[in-house]
């Protein structure tokens, strides 16, 4: 008897489910408002009016973590098809399961890949039963990806430390954690720029960049004037990929070194900003530093610009208030090469770098 009752209940459940069909009408990709999630087509085969609610659950397709849920008001279905839009389900009861979710009813969904799962709930008094279910993947992507700006494609940069800039993706307000990854690779002979990006080890990579520009750092691998380079930028929302730029190429020319022989006044003033000037230094490096911080001690380094920015000398020196005339003996050091380029930099208590570039020579 119990078995017969279960079979009858199952048949009745299947009959109810067959009474309502649902078709979800979502664009597969693009910018999307939360209200667009409620574009549905419901078809009722019942001869009488049917009361239903629609339950929505949106999850992150990459992590499978829930983002938010929504439950509509009761909707009355007549026999036949009914086009459902946001106005038909309002007010919607939302539950937000991730802090970054936009809580505005008509707000834009943040960039990412999602899975929207719908359930049509048949309402009879205090009893609810599932009449139809469907899940549909969709992606929220910017209308315009980030666009490279400078260096221009196939250009030659004067500086060995170029600045890279780009335009943000649009619209920006679909991102709650917009950050960029910038990649530079060498383009080898016979390679296209795309092949180089896909196959070669990066010369430089900047991760989680918040601003649409990167200054090539002095600590990175020195760009070779004889090589061709490709670069691109990827826009991410948090840790999730969103869009990427085209791939551009560039070369570096490097400013012609201006060698200054140390004669007459032998002390060269340290500066915070570097340019193309190189000081010819035989034996002893002589620099002047204005100690405005009244520090009593400072750290300094000598870095090879021709050998992967390797630190060759690291030490401290005593300072007095005002202008200090500093001498760093370099004669006899086997790790310094004739005609090689080096960077001397001094760090004060404010963590500022005061520096200059020089060429080591045995004699003038």
Which terms would index this structure?
DUF928 domain-containing protein, mainly beta, 3 domains, signal, 3 helices, 6-stranded mixed beta sheet, Immunoglobulin-like, Ig-like_fold, 364 residues
Summary of the model, kept short:
This protein has 364 residues and is mostly beta strands. It has helices at 2-19, 86-89, 193-199, and strands at 20-24, 29-30, 40-44, 50-60, 66-71, 75-77, 80-84, 93-96, 112-124, 127-140, 147-150, 155-157, 163-167, 178-187, 204-209, 213-215, 228-237, 240-244, 248-252, 258-261, 268-269, 277-282, 284-291, 297-304, 311-318, 322-329, 341-347, 353-361. The chain has 3 domains: 2-140, Immunoglobulins (Immunoglobulin-like), CATH 2.60.40.10; 147-252, Immunoglobulin-like, CATH 2.60.40.10; 258-361, Immunoglobulin-like.
């Amino acid at each position: 008897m119990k078995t017969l009752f279960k079979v009858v209940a199952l048949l009745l459940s299947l009959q109810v489910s067959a009474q309502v069909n649902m078709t979800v009408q979502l664009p597969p990709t693009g910018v999307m408002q939360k209200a667009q999630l409620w574009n549905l087509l419901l078809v009722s085969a019942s001869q009488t009016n049917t009361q239903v609610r629609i339950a929505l659950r949106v999850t992150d397709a990459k992590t499978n973590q829930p983002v938010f849920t929504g439950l509509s008001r009761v909707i009355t279905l007549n026999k036949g098809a009914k086009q459902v839009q946001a106005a038909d389900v309002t007010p919607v009861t939302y539950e937000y399961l991730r802090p970054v979710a936009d809580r505005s009813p008509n707000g834009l969904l943040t960039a990412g890949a999602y899975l929207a799962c719908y359930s049509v709930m048949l309402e009879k008094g205090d009893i609810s039963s599932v009449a139809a279910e469907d899940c549909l993947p969709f992606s929220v992507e910017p209308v315009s990806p980030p666009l490279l700006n400078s260096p221009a494609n196939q250009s030659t940069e004067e500086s060995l430390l170029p600045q890279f800039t780009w335009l943000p993706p649009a619209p920006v307000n679909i991102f709650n954690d917009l950050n960029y990854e910038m990649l530079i690779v060498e383009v080898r002979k016979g390679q296209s720029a795309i092949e180089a990006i896909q196959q070669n080890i990066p010369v430089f990579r900047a991760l989680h960049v918040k601003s649409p520009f990167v200054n090539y750092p002095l600590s990175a691998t020195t760009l070779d004037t004889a090589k061709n380079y490709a670069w691109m930028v990827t826009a991410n929302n948090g840790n999730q990929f969103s869009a990427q730029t085209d791939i551009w190429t560039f070369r570096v020319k490097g400013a012609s070194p201006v060698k200054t022989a140390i004669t007459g006044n032998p002390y060269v003033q340290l500066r915070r900003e570097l340019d193309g000037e190189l000081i010819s230094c035989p034996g002893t490096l002589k620099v002047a530093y204005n100690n405005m911080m009244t520090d009593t001690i400072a750290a300094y380094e000598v870095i090879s610009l021709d050998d992967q920015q390797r630190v060759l000398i690291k030490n401290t020196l005593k300072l007095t208030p005002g202008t200090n005339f500093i001498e760093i003996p370099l004669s006899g050091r086997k790790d310094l090469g004739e005609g090689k380029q080096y960077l001397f930099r001094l760090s004060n208590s404010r963590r500022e770098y005061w520096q200059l570039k020089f060429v080591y020579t045995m004699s003038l």
